[in-house]
Amino acid sequence: MNGRRNWVLSIVAIVVSAVVFLVPFAFIVLMAGKDRAQASLLDFSWPHQLQFVRNFIDVVEARDYMLIIAYINSTVLTVASVAGMVVLAAMVAFVLQRRPGRWGGFINFLVLAGLIVPPAVVPTIWVLKGTGTFGTMPGLILVEIAFGLSFCVLLFRAFIATIPRELDEAAVIDGAGPLRLFFRVIFPLLRSVIITAVVVQSVTVFNDFVNPLYFLPGDPTVQLTLYNFAGQYTSEYNLLFMNILLITVPPLVMFLFFNRRIVAGMTAGAIKG
């Protein structure tokens, strides 16, 4: 009886998930393939004449290839931010877990505060202007690292707690210093959780809209192109939905491809602990 009930609940969950996630995505795909007249109806119907290629070219060429420039900016932002985030978070988590010290409690408080306290836009702009990085890509990269660091620290710390301290002692006996101990012994063991952090934070940074809008005015990212398209092409829904499709597919494919790795990395600490 319980087995049958679980089977029914599984079927219901699959159907609900399909309705919630697949139906909106299918609507976006259909709208992106319609012409301007049919797209203006905003109905869930098959295109009378598929115009995927034409709409794709129009979106790419719009506003002097703004989407291409935005993809380059978002790629640079995502790669640099996630790389810095992962390395710094792993190092902080290693120190907090292995050598907490008398400042460990205060640093833990700051890490938790980074998850709980909402970001303050005006003070952040003031700090960026004081350092001369406001409106620059390095400044936005630092902002993304700062905002995502707390989550990564907690993720890495939970995994590092499962690594035996005997490995540290053996490396120290062999003459390894702190940096060599971390990068040659500990860091390679964090592969599963590194993949999790990279995928989750890459999707987060790539899809970020607020931070580039406030801290990088004038330079478009992929999410800002959607904002610009919504204002410029209010009556051309086919181009608007094609733009949505183009900025949705990369993170979606990445998430689906690394889905198992994400789950493994999120649960690795709990399983080994």
TrEMBL record:
GO CC, any one term: plasma membrane
Membrane topology summary: Multi-pass membrane protein
Keyword terms of this UniProt record: Cell membrane, Membrane, Transmembrane, Transmembrane helix, Transport
Compartment annotation: Cell membrane
Transmembrane regions listed in the UniProt entry: 7-32, 68-94, 106-128, 140-160, 181-206, 237-258
Positions of the ABC transmembrane type-1 domain: 71-258
GO biological process, one term: transmembrane transport
Protein's UniProt keywords contain Methyltransferase: no
InterPro entries xrefs: MetI-like (IPR000515), MetI-like_sf (IPR035906)
Cell membrane is among the record's keywords: yes
Gene3D superfamilies per UniProt: MetI-like
Predominant localisation class: membrane
UniProt record similarity statement: Belongs to the binding-protein-dependent transport system permease family.
Protein's name according to its UniProt entry: Transporter
Organism encoding this protein: Winogradskya consettensis
